[in-house]
Design a protein that fits this description.
Rossmann fold; 8 strands; alpha/beta; eight-stranded mixed beta sheet; 11 helices; disordered C terminus
Length: 290
Amino acid sequence: MIQLTLCSAKGAPGVTTLACVLGAVWPVDRAVVVAECDPSGGDLAGRFSLSTRTGMTSLVLAGRQGMVESEDHTGHTQTLPGGLDVLVAPTGADSATALDRELGLSSADLISGDCDLLADCGRLLPHAPGQERMVRDADRVLLLVRPDLAGIAHAQWAGTRIRQLSKSRSSVVIVGPGVFKPHELARELDSTVIGSIPFDPAAALMAGGGPGTAKDFSRSALVASAREIVATLIEETTSDTTPGHGPPGGTAKRPTPESRSRIRRRLRSAPEASEPLLIPSNKSPRTVSP
């Protein structure tokens, strides 16, 4: 099992989008789930007409009731059209803040079985116990940063906070264009840069269920960058020995033609131009999103 936490300092750099695209290109021989752990509220339910009754709230409350030592998360996931399993959070800030408190109080494992977890923690906030727990428990923390003066200024506080909470490895992901180069960002933030996400609004829109084709999406610069990040993450994280999570299995491999096809199916969040954009209300939505 690998637990990866994604977060940002400020400026909405697309934490949810990246979490879901990483999940879409995650090795097909490894189970993975994206969990919304943002104390400011989740995006997936609103973007994909998912129910907030099933997700992070139901999972955390079930664990808090002590019915089982570790609740099976699979009973609380919903699946995006491409096949990515997600644990959605409430959209409202009040409900999300209450959930964050419950998550901080809970001692139960969030994910059961041999499944990797991508935790979307959104913007780092002070005094958010659930968010802090996800950073503290992570095998790896990714901080998304825009490469400009404001982005660096906000990221300096966030980087310090991450180091206070977690002894695991943390890395920076650069989002979009800017005046600073990767080595300059690494020096200013005293952290390694694991990759860069290009400004690719068309692919980001498709990742959120907008119009487009799976072929265009899978060939986009956004997906290509995500693949590189995942390959590095899997290789580095599986070589680490992180106490408390057990030995993660597997290493990054070049995708075979068969696995490319399976990845493409998982990537298929965007409807074809001839398909309706809305999911019928009598079906349980399942998708990849920003």
